[in-house]
Design brief:
The termini are far apart. This protein is α/β, with parallel strands linked by helices. Strands 1-6-5-2-3-4 form a six-stranded mixed beta sheet, with helices on both faces. Helix 10 packs across helix 11, helix 13 runs parallel beside helix 15 and helix 15 runs antiparallel to helix 16.
């Protein structure tokens, strides 16, 4: 049978980009070669628990890898963990998940999640499976059989369980079911490849054991690195406020890209775009602003289209990059009793506008030249000199915070 796939080396060149590890790597090449020989696509698994997350670019990294497998002709299998979500993924956690979801919440979240990931993968060509399909009918004997496939000593080799055990932090029995359930998913759908983060290695290896015991060829694990957030240090997450959401409009995304630290640019280009490395090198050797505009354009085009992405970049250049005024300037009410004879101390003004959390922080901002007033951004550098407040005064605190006053 003639193979409908690109040459193996071509596929590997695409699939290795932005990957932390492939375990075992030589097996992936063999699976791709066999797939080409037989004309049978690989079954590539990615699982997600619908826990109500807003999908952000951190989540997009393994999903982009799943799309690459699709584009190469392989079968994407998306596992919606409506059963595992009721347990809660302990991966990378130092303590038990506090909030337990109801079945109704999980079902609602699953629908929302599919709508979001459809921006990245081709859902029409994706096999979507819910693991409640096979875990729901299980009785006690089935669950005991699943538990009998791993030992307590094995589970305590998991990094997160090991840390919690040594710290004498509780590990609940239901949490121990999670890696067993995830590994069993691979057996049910006969996965050839599983995608995920490096923190999932233990479960991926457990799945290989389960598959071997079931008489199946064991899966290969393709693990992506963790994408740092817009702060450049911590893992991207909504709770940390350092995320770029897939559902955000193109201009909001562009503004966040333009605020990225320079030293994360290569990682973002590698994990979030298909720009050739030679071109990335050339971009990073030039002005950081131009590199960030290109990065924003590449990513935003994927989610909003080229025209909208260009408009967002042009707007940023016009309103922020070129020193112009933003189109949408918020108004913040200033209490009348804070104003004396039409004037207000700069610290009181900045705190009232929630640009600074304390008078001390406001003092540092003013002394460092970060406070500016009016459309022409006149610096106000004397902390002891009150500001004359009128309705509609434009106040800047650094480059990112600005609003007009509304005198009550």
């Amino acid at each position: 049978m003639s193979a409908p796939f690109p040459p193996v080396e071509e596929q590997l060149a695409v699939l290795r980009r932005g990957v932390e590890a492939i375990v075992p790597e030589d097996e992936l090449a063999k699976k791709l070669a066999k797939s080409a020989e037989t004309g049978k696509p690989l079954r590539v698994k990615y699982g997600i628990d619908p826990t109500g997350i807003d999908v952000h670019l951190g989540h997009s990294v393994p999903l982009r890898k799943l799309r690459q497998f699709q584009d190469l002709g392989h079968q994407a299998v998306l596992i919606i963990g409506d059963a595992t979500a009721l347990v809660g993924d302990p991966s990378g956690r130092d303590e038990a998940r506090a909030k337990k979801l109801t079945a109704e919440e999980v079902a609602a979240n699953a629908r929302d999640y599919l709508a979001q990931v459809g921006r990245i993968i081709d859902l029409d060509k994706t096999e979507v499976r819910h693991n409640a399909e096979w875990f729901g009918p299980m009785g006690l004997a089935d669950i005991l059989g699943l538990c009998g496939k791993a030992t307590v000593a094995q589970l305590l080799n998991r990094d997160d369980f090991k840390k919690r055990f040594e710290a004498e932090t509780p590990i609940f029995l239901h949490e121990c079911l999670y890696p067993l359930m995830q590994a069993h998913d691979s057996v049910v759908i006969e996965a050839d490849v599983e995608l995920g983060g490096t923190e999932q290695l233990f479960t991926f290896m457990l799945a290989r054991d389960f598959q071997t015991a079931a008489g199946q060829p064991p899966q290969v694990s393709v693990m992506s690195p963790i994408l740092v957030g817009t702060d450049g240090t911590r893992r991207m997450g909504k709770s940390l406020g350092n995320y770029i959401g897939l559902a955000e409009d193109a201009y909001a995304q562009t503004k966040k890209f333009m605020q990225l630290p320079d030293d994360v640019m290569r990682t973002y280009f590698t994990l979030l775009t298909d720009v050739a490395f030679e071109e990335v090198d050339a971009l990073l050797a030039g002005h950081p602003k131009e590199a960030k505009l290109r990065l924003a354009a590449e990513v935003c085009t994927g989610y909003h289209g080229a025209e909208v992405a260009k408009e967002a970049g042009d707007r940023w250049q016009r309103e922020i990059g070129g020193g112009g005024l933003p189109a949408d300037i918020p108004e913040i009410a200033i209490p009348a009793d804070a104003i004396v004879e039409g004037k207000i101390p700069p610290g009181t003004l900045l705190v009232a506008m929630k640009f600074c959390s304390s008078n001390g922080e406001a003092r540092r901002l003013v002394q460092q030249g970060g406070m500016k007033l009016g459309e022409d951004k006149t610096p106000h550098t004397d902390f002891g000199t009150p500001v004359e407040v009128i309705d509609g005064l434009l106040v800047w605190a650094g480059k990112k915070k600005f609003a007009r006053t509304k005198v009550e």
